[in-house]
Amino acid sequence: MPVYDYKCQDHGLFHDLASMAESALPCACPQCGELSARVIMIPPEVLAMAPAKRQAMARNEKALHQPIISTPDSREDASQRRAHSAAKKGCDCGPKVFNPDRSSLRQQAIFLPDGSKVFPSQRPWMISH
User: Fold this and answer.
1) Cα distance between residue 89 and residue 92, in whole Å
2) Which of 12, 17, 25, 60 lies 20 to 30 angstroms, CA to CA, from 83?
């Protein structure tokens, strides 16, 4: 059984064993018996981390699940936004959100005479299997 962290309002943090099915339920404080909620502890390494590194890690984590699609149109829009912001500092124009139509990015498989498949890709360095 895993050990979970709980916090009593009067006596602070304590640890207790609980099954995974009971992980969301409160646990009785060993000192006063009051039901205490489970808390999720943040590792001290995260708290002591430089803010720039923490932001970079958060950005990388977001990109892992929601990658930014680079297309000629999006690169053109980004370069225009950079040029606009460089030319007009303090301009109150809001950022434009690029939301590509993902159906246009789907690739079709090409079947060769020997039965193998080839995927024409926007990423020629990737090896198909």
Assistant:
1) 9
2) 60
Residue spans of the domains in the chain: they are: 3-42
Here the tokens at position 97 are 């959100």
Based on the number of CB atoms within 10 Å of its own CB, is 7 exposed (0-12), middle (13-18) or buried (19 or more)?
middle
Of the chain, the end-to-end C-alpha distance in Å amounts to 41
Estimate to the nearest angstrom the gap between the alpha carbon of 34 and the chain centroid: 36
Sign of CA dihedral 33, 36, 41, 47: negative
C-alpha span between 66 and 71 (Å, rounded)? 15
Q: Please give the C-alpha separations between residue 125 and each of 119, 120, 121, in angstroms, as whole numbers.
A: 12, 11, 9
Alpha carbon of residue 25 to chain centroid: 27
Half-sphere exposure of 116 (CA within 13 A, CB side): 5
The verdict on pTM exceeding 0.70 is no
Report whether pLDDT(22) > 70.
yes
